[in-house]
Specification:
Elements: H1 3-22, H2 32-55, H3 62-86, H4 90-96, H5 104-114, H6 120-144, E1 157-158, E2 166-167, H7 172-187, H8 191-211
Antiparallel strand pairs: 1-2
Helix pairs in contact: 1-5, 1-6, 2-5, 3-4, 3-5, 6-7, 7-8
Length: 217
């Protein structure tokens, strides 16, 4: 595999698994099937990694085992608590926490790095690609869609009674970009990094004001 193909392959894989892990569009209408499919994809991908390790007679990393324990323990513990307090069947509690399986995507990226299939730099580039793509979608959503038409989707739009309706966006990608360009501005000192950092800080501040109902969306 040439360096160019390895670069493209690594970034592509990182983008896919990062998108699955952080689910930046999970609250968008009509994408529930994509959310459920991502959970299945994460579990299947992790099982493939485990299978490859068994075939190669390699042990699973402690970090991946830790993630697996969290994915199993957290739903079971919360399901048991719900069953104890409200008498809810445990299977309902486990299914309600099925999204925790997306944490396996982190273990998959770690295992791929350990195998040399992708590099840490690929993950950083993947985060940047997913973050900028999501930010673009958020801007397009805000410009061309009316949040008042989506109030029945409570995770996507809010307000509409006392306060004006507004969209609910996943801001952690903007937080990542902010920290990334703050670090870049400290390391390289370029005007580009400083301008991106300033723009992202103002964007987060604006979204916080909208979330608190201080500004119209």
């Amino acid at each position: 595999m040439t360096n160019l193909l390895r670069f493209r392959y690594g970034v592509l894989v990182a983008c896919v698994w990062i998108y699955i892990a952080i689910q930046v569009f999970w609250n968008y209408p009509y994408l529930r099937a994509l959310y459920e499919g991502s959970i299945i994809f994460s579990v299947a991908g992790f099982l493939v990694i485990i299978g490859m390790n068994l075939v190669a007679k390699k042990s699973v990393s402690i970090f991946s085992l830790y993630i697996l324990i969290l994915v199993i323990y957290i739903p079971l513990q919360l399901a048991y608590a719900a069953a104890l307090v409200w008498g809810q069947p445990m299977i309902f509690g486990v299914l309600a926490r099925r999204g925790d399986a997306l944490m396996l995507s982190v273990a998959i990226l770690y295992e791929l790095c350990q195998r040399g299939r992708i590099e840490v730099e690929d993950i950083v580039r993947g985060l940047l690609v997913v973050s900028w793509f999501a930010a673009l979608i958020f801007v397009v959503t805000k410009i061309f869609l009316d949040p008042g038409n989506f109030l029945e989707y409570v995770t996507f739009a809010k307000g509409g009674s006392v306060n004006p309706a507004y969209f609910v966006f996943t801001t952690h990608i903007l937080v990542f970009l902010t920290y990334y360009f703050w670090t870049s501005s400290r390391l390289d000192g370029t005007l580009r990094s400083k301008m991106f950092f300033l723009f992202l800080v103002l964007s987060l501040f604006f979204l916080e004001l909208v979330e608190r109902g201080c500004l119209p969306s």
